[in-house]
Sequence to fold (283 residues):
Amino acid sequence: MNDDPSTATGTGTETGTGRGARPRPRIDTSKPHSARFWNYFVGGKDYYEVDREIGDHIKQIFPGLVDVAVTSRHFLGRAVRYLADEQGVRQFLDVGTGLPTADNTHEVAQRAAPDARIVYVDNDPIVLAHADALLAGTPEGRTVYLNADLYAPETILEAAADTLDLSQPVGLMILNTLGHVADHDQARDLVSRLMAGLPSGSHLVISDSTATSEGMIAASEAYNASGAVPYHVRSVAEIAAFFDGLDLADPGVVRVPEWRPDRRNPADAASAVDAYCGVGRKP
Fold:
């Protein structure tokens, strides 16, 4: 992440990477990258040899991380459908977007509500390079990408207000991202500052890998030793703490496959993954 977030304005389906200009991204292929690594695990095609190598190495250490990646992606779909179908949410702020695969936030939301508005936030060059593919939304809605930094919540909110009506409920999605923030108190502060800028009726959606098995801890250590930006797995209690002050939707903070499972992905039911999630509503 960087400290110089930029913003975007305008209408329709767009990419914001500065004041109207898209910089040429510098993609480092000498070290693994979390977005590309995760893309490899969920069956995507946007990765390099270095990402495949560390992915295959971690599969040998802890094959269950593939299940974490896949079931976390399925959770995204269930959570967005819950917010759009059951809670009537029509606006989504997805921080830490990652690379596009199948059923991105805007695709799920706009199938349920074609007029839904989605703002994606990331500042990784590899994500920026694929932003056009990410942004194929409906003509009725709006889908915008912001090149901005998780460490600047107020800047994110200010930029998102060009697309979202922040007087109306927003679904804040932070999936498999907060592990990049080493200090838990700092991560909680960043989440709180983002939620502080959203109105009553907004929802927080979080999923992250957890230090709930020796295999996951070993996989995390191997990944961090690879030269990639470190990812820190946390306890279940630390994941739950992100929802302090919010009203948790049933069934609370649980393993990713256990959050409102549906028939679309029956294999999830057999996955005892080291990843927890939750959805909380701002009173």
